[in-house]
Amino acid sequence: MLKKLLKKNDFVKVYHNYLYLLLIQGTNLVLPLITFPYLVRVLGSEKYGLVMIAYSLMKFFIITVDFGFNISATREVALLKNDMQKLSKFYWNVLIVKSLLLILTFLTLFLLTISVDKLKLDPLIYLLSFGIVFGQSIFPTWFFQGIEKMQIITIINVIAKVFFTMTIFFIVLGPQDYYYVPILNGIGFILAGLLGFFYSLKYVKLILPTFQEIKINITKTFSLFVSNIAVSLYTSSNTLILGFFIGNSVAGVYASMEKLIQAIQTMYTPIYQALFPNLSTKNNKEIQKTIGKMKLPIALSGLIISFIIFLGAESILRIIFNDDLITSYYKVFQLIGLMAFLSSLNMLYVTLYFPAIKKYKTRMKILVSGGFFNLVVALSLVKAYSIYGVASSAIFTELFILVFSLYFYKKTLHESI
């Protein structure tokens, strides 16, 4: 599909970046899919659910520290990559903001563990899970994506995470070992992050930005930050809602199924991420032409995947997890399987199209509306319908976002005529 969308020179760069980004995304999502079935059996549903609730909370903090730089900084680096002075200053600008946010989020987590009853029951599991946030925040994917040099950093990332993830099979041997899960995952993320950070220094000089430049960067990126927080309201909050209102076991069941859907989304995310630096340098008409060509193949692939999940939900869960509790909820998996179709198209607009044409506020409107919509619906349905209510909320939200995205997409088409 990429070859038809791009010129020959652009295709080579984008295709290579796509492969490396696919490897990074695949590592982040497929490795847990390898370990989680093992953890379900070894830890039991209660401890496994607790680990997944902590992981879901960390995703909020990861998004906070990222602050939307996965889009804005990638675009800016792509534009500045031939100017060492400006590139270096911008690099340290982003790093300073992320460092401040990292400190702020850790203090927030600490306060939550001493004040929220649910978290006070086992504060150490949440604090140890913060290693993932630290590692993810210092790994400069946005920088390497922008300068379109992903090869070495991908290898570093994958080797570090694979090694420490595999150690779970040798160290986590029973329910009493559940603390080791966030520790080992955190070490993998931190090591990859540090290696990525030090490797990135060969491409920049130490040129610190002024306070005014940092302030401008924060202001320009704030709408993306709000958008990304809104995304987490329907991608991460559902596990937390189930954990708080129903219990750890059911939250773990939902998180397991959600992981499978996120693994499917991994196929699309690298395509959009690889195309983004290239598209961000094009004019609006060229961007719209590219999106127009992508709609049908993306929709068809998502529809096929959703259909396969619907037909084989029970068998898929039994093969992957081999757990009677998770398999008994196969109808939930059939339901959220629709997300493979809906989210693939949503991502085309909110992850690629609107950021590429710099419609950050439009993207924010869509995602904030969707985030609050999910929160209201999920909280309304969870007590009466438990996991089925939360799963329904996720599908309604994806549909809501798709309709909203299409409306604004067509509006921008008319504006450019």
UniProtKB/TrEMBL annotation:
InterPro entries reported in the protein's UniProt record: Poly_Biosynth_Transport, Polysacc_synth
Membrane topology: Multi-pass membrane protein
Subcellular location: Cell membrane
Domain of life of the source: Bacteria
An example Gene Ontology CC term for this record: plasma membrane
Primary localization class, coarse: membrane
Spans through the membrane: 20-40, 52-69, 90-112, 124-145, 152-173, 179-204, 298-321, 333-354, 366-382, 388-409
Keyword line: Cell membrane, Membrane, Transmembrane, Transmembrane helix
Keyword Cytoplasm appears in the UniProt entry: no
PANTHER family (alphabetical): O-ANTIGEN TRANSPORTER-RELATED, PST FAMILY PREDICTED COLANIC ACID TRANSPORTER
Protein name in the entry: Uncharacterized protein
Species per Swiss-Prot/TrEMBL record: Polaribacter aestuariivivens
Upper taxonomic lineage: Bacteria, Pseudomonadati, Bacteroidota, Flavobacteriia, Flavobacteriales
